[in-house]
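Researcher: Go.
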Amino acid sequence: MTVQAQLAPTRKATETTPARRARYHIAENGFSFSWPAVPTHQFLAERNRAMDANTPTSTIDLDISDTLGTAYPATTPALLTRYVKLRAGETIRMTCVASGEVYYVMKGSGESRNAGEIIEWGDGDVFCFPGGSETTHRAGESDCLLFCATDEPLLAFARLRAPAPAQAAIAATHWPAEEIDRHFETVWQRPVTDNTTGHSVQFQTAGLAPAPITLPTMNVAINTLAPGIDQRPHRQRPQRLGRRHVGYRHRRNAALAVGVGCALAHRCLFA
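Model: Structure:
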């Protein structure tokens, strides 16, 4: 008698705790499942608080976790965005359990520090730090407003920790407004073809090249449209955060777009 045969009569796999946790999906179309659609929501109250001159130094989460049914703050199932309000000369400290944290400077100038790295920023800049370490933001001589995006909900869903500083996939990175505008000049001079999906500048970090993404799971871009022009449909589904989230400078009808992507595929796969 084989060992398997000897063990068979006493095997009670279906009565074990791990077996009782098992679930089975046997739909005719195995790919038919989809998560409920993320509801349309305007964060008007949060926007008004952020832009109110009397609002103290604070972070203002764009959180619809009650609607999404998550136990953690979330703007979408995979992203959390927030305003960072800084009164002149004041400081705020924050730690994000995320693969990274990306900021757009809506107003003002100042500096941010994270794990020994220092970025001096001004109106229209974009910058990022790895997640997990404390970030200190300090405003200059006038009030400042930053817009921050992270993948905190993804890590919270998977019960993951932020990477240790020496193991982060990205390093502190700064995209100054002047360089962004210089790249937009090239974008706007480029002829429109059947392959044109928009006029945008995407923000890539060196550690993730050649993927044109910002964080391991996030793509951030500023997308623009000339007055009266439509953008042709395409497959990406970024979270467009509205032109009011983007400094005006000389960018035409600009909107900040944040989407969830996959670095391993070396392409943007938005959710």
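Model: The CA atoms of residues 128 and 173 lie 5 Å apart.
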